[in-house]
Amino acid sequence: MDDDTVSASRTLSGPPRWLDAQRIRAYASFVLLVNIGFFSLRVWYGWVKPLPNVSPPGWDFAVFWSASWLALHGPAVNAFDTALIEPIVLPLQNMLPTPFVTPWTYPPTFLLVMLPAALLPFGLSCLAYVLAWIAFALQACLRILPQLRARSWWLPVVAFPAVWAAGSAGQNSFLTFGLIGFGLACVDRRPWLAGILFGLLAIKPQLGLVIPVALLCGRHWRAFVSSALTVGALCALAGLLLGFATFARFVEALPAFNHFVIQYSDRWPRGISTVFGAARHFGVAIPSAYVLHAIVAALAASAVVWLWSMRASFELRASALVLATLLVPTYLMPYDLLLLGLPILWLVRDGGRNGWIRGDGVALVSAWISPIVIYTPGDWAAAAYAPVIVLALLLVVVRRYLAQRTVRAGEWAVIVEGAGHSSSH
User: Does the predicted TM-score (pTM) go above 0.70?
Assistant: First the structure.
């Protein structure tokens, strides 16, 4: 082996000594208590002893349920009318009218998914949908890391702050988590099914921007075709059941919401979890913030192109794709950081197989705890720091690929050299 190969093989070592099972349990137990404490405050001041503008659990699901109610009781396009939806949403959220409107800005494809929601009372509907989404996401976790079936592995999963952030809000993050997780798990062996799962991300299109790039670079033609057909079929079904006018209203609603986000981007409560949001939080002018975001997004997409074209290990390819998915859109919220769970699981699996590099543990723990920003005061805008964590984890993925490639190249050279010696004798 040459010096570079020896150095890389030494770099890939055992798990971090400071991150043993006992410490993991201790850290996870503490964070779990914090999660339970803040969730209890939501229940107490949102339901038991309501305080104005303290929303009980399910505040985002209130928007979904209200859109369903409007779609069931009139033309589905009414869901996009802020003047109609806010009188239904705000009482459910225990909110007084504020400049921060609560519009329905999702595509008709997601309205189709939520259409039956208002057939049940709000609380029961929220519980049924969120539990179903959580069960789907947990199955994806088990598919990625089967060791999670052991009781000792469940504590850090349950304590992951993004689980509580998405669950408390009643967000669809568990659904998108499961679609991406299962889709990537199927992409090599069941490409048509993977394409269907990716295509269903049309319910939240900004999370599917990088997936076609990865599929094309990885030469997963069947998954690419399947995803395109699924998007087309889902849009056609939504148009037939809800009316194709809903697509026109959705397109009209996007610029208004984008303008609203830009208007408040420098003082958004708890911050926007993107590079654009971080730049605006620190006072960067809007055009410069967009340029900075575009640079980082291009770098993230380039990492996906490189790793998928070079056929890196599945764990590293999948991790890079999810991390780029969090870096490319300009608007994400802390509950979207639930997707960080996917690269964390894949990197744990990859580390168990190929060894660890110093600093990997710090990056993984930082990513795991980062969604706790949902509990910080709104004035801190702490969610704006999340892109730093996401980018650091992407650098971990790239560094691991380079180290593994160097080791494997050295091992191949030794095999070739050994074969040469054998043939000469």
Answer: yes
